[in-house]
Amino acid sequence: MNQPAVSPTLDTLFQRTLMRQPHATALLDPLNKFRVTGHEPRRMSYAEADTAIEALSAYFVESGLPANSVIAIQLPNTVEFVLTVLAAHRAGLVVAVLPLLWRHAELTAALNRTAARAIVTMSTVDGVSYADLAMHAAAEAFSIRHVCGFGTNLPEGMASLDDVQARPPGTARAVIQDGRKAAMISFDVTAEGFRPVPRPHFSLIAGGLAMSLEADIRQGATVMAAFTPMSFAGLASSLAVWLLCGGTLALHHPFENDVLEQQINAHECDVLIAPAQFAQRLGDSELAARMPSLRNVIGLWRAPEQVSASEAWIAPHAPFTDVYLFGEAGLFGARRGEDGMPVPVMPGPHGAPREQSGSSIAGEILLTPKGTLGLRGPMVPIAAYAPPPPVGDSLIAQPPRDYVDTGYAARLDRPSGAICITAPPSGIMAVGGYRFLSNDLQEWARRLGQGALLTALPDRLSGHRLAGRAQDNARAREALSELGLNPLMVEAFRDRSGPV
């Protein structure tokens, strides 16, 4: 009897490399990890990582988490994040990724919307107690049964996952490895509001393939991932790219320029994946001398409308690949030519790599009737973005939509026929990757007091920056905290705009 073809999962890809080279280096922590989390940096082989994954997976099973239930993760860009995601998948769980800059209200809403059974976090990140944030959010989420953390001085009632990794693995659970099963839930902000976006394994792998094939990442490469992993793009550009190339994943918790350069040279990294504006600041004429091991640079654009106006890349020894990000809807990449300028992106199906005839179709780009950019393809979760049913009593079924409208204004360039992305979605702001509705600014400004001003100004590095004015700056920051903003987010506002 013929067995049906089953697409691989992330854990399948990991175990393939594990069987081939168990003692090869798999994971490298940030060099400044002790400052960020209080943990010493770790260097793990595939066999060592597999042992830790087995122990964490067994703990999730023994804790009574049912297969296909949701486990929420709010962790920095360290090996604990990678180990937890793979352990959850090995236990048959679905991972919901929670950005570090989220405020308490969003954290609670995400846990309730996904009916998460457990949450995993770090005791502290950059001096902020994420263990306390998780405990407070879990108290307001009826579905949460387990709160787990890495690090020391965890609150009472929070299980220590460091202790779990230190003991032998326990109970395993037989899980069917099928790439069509749900793998992750990320969260987007659209004009309609807060939106959970579920994805299967094959969708994540498709995103990783679109990047790795377009950038021509070699097998066995050492990949430096310096992009926050709490999104589809973050997981695809770090976890998926690493597992597809079967090499080493070096992690950097954004951002310290000197530490990043030190890591790249110490680990002889072949590939750098980072926010595009940040990567471009590294790409001067001395890049070959400063970081001679680099062979590929992948820049992820949170504001894809800025790509066409970006500066030329002048480091020919490490070609630059632009990756256009559209929230959690999807992405596509385009490697720059010899002149270092962005290449035209044509509508229609696009392969990976883009210019190679006969390459596999990574997705399709189209213009919608509203003059916005639409995406379709294996990585695009069309059902998650389905428009609400029309109001009325009509019994005629509406035709299904087979693409996602990203909301980004776009047009066709008449001479070349290329797609030109001209503006971000209306009514949505982004500060350092944190997306929110522009209407939220009015509520935040109201809490600052009479005569206060808070506005979002365009910023090439972070999309927007918050600028404000208040008679009492200390009271202004206190008011933002009272509103439920994560303390790191308050600091981010202050750092980008001066005192709020």
From TrEMBL:
Q: Which segments does the entry list as coiled coil?
A: none
Q: Does the keyword Ligase apply?
A: yes
Q: Where is the AMP-dependent synthetase/ligase domain?
A: 14-326
UniProt key word Ligase: yes
GO BP, sorted A to Z: fatty acid metabolic process
Enumerate the UniProt keywords alphabetically. Ligase
Any one GO MF annotation of this record: medium-chain fatty acid-CoA ligase activity
State the similarity comment.
Belongs to the ATP-dependent AMP-binding enzyme family.
Q: What is this protein called?
A: AMP-dependent synthetase
